[in-house]
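User: Earlier you gave me the apo prediction for this protein. Now I'd like the version with magnesium ion bound, so I can compare the two side by side. Same sequence as before, with the ligand SMILES added.
Assistant: Got it. Here's the input I'm using:
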Amino acid sequence: MGFPAIRMRRMRRDAFSRALMRETVLTPADLILPVFVREGRGVREPVASMPGVERLAIDELLKVGEEALRLGVPALALFPAPDAAAKSEDAREAWNPDGLVQRAVRALKQRLPELGVITDVALDPYTTHGQDGLIDASGYVLNDETTAALVRQALAQAEAGADFVAPSDMMDGRIGAIRQALEAAGLIHTRILAYSAKYASSFYGPFRDAVGSAASLGKGGKHTYQMDVANGDEALREVALDLEEGADAVMVKPGLPYLDIVRRVKERFGAPTFVYQVSGEYAMLKAAGRNGWIDERACALEALVGIKRAGADAILTYFALDAARWLRGG
Ligand SMILES: NCC(=O)CCC(=O)O
Ligand SMILES: [Mg+2]
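And here is the structure of the complex with magnesium ion:
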């Protein structure tokens, strides 16, 4: 049977029948807001390459957390933008129990216990060289030594009350090492969100401005640990290993250029699959919107629905609060 018995446009004719056959519905509960945390009180410092995004002192962060809850956004992902004095060759500030992130976690969990708090496990905000791990004399990022440092960092975050620790560093074996350490410490409820398929993407540029690692990183890339943008099968092997090692959820990052990976990961493993719409994706939409070249709201929501349609269970996006407002008709 074909045309004219079949006319695909019949169902598209009216809003009610379009609504009834809609396959993917984006809600605020699908979204996680990444936030940049800094020292100080009452400070909100704009990030030039990410219009609308600010580095927040902890008291300001609490207000943003409250707004997220009010809008139905279930969780924040914290990223530190520490003072330059907190950076060192060995990143030891990362596991200081009174460090910036640990204080931010405690403040959030005390004031807003029902808001999910996700912490970033990686050394780049704390290293003088801007790499995610510890390096040898040639600048190569050392796997096992870095993993030992990441375990200390994850424990400090979990002890402060983080609901999810989220290793974004791409060292081999770190999920298993962190899981073992959490169990041994009695922290059996702490979830691990593994950045399993994290690509060596150029779309992270504005993020590196935000956390202040761009200058220290200089021309050094992250290609010896993050994945080659051309690869798909390798992502599936990474995800399989992280799930085996004890990850509760896995991440694909960035979002829009990697939706084939999202689909393959979701179909193959059926595990909670999170996607990070990264800073460069945000900056592109913002810049074009601000120039009047695209409709920012419509295009941002379209990108987010597309990511969910591809298989994402949750999306980290700098649009989270705006998108929640738009979805609620604001
Ligand atoms: N671990 C976080 C990143 O590496 C970048 C995120 C972004 O570009 O938004
Ligand atoms: Mg891996």
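For your comparison, keep in mind: The mean pLDDT is 97.
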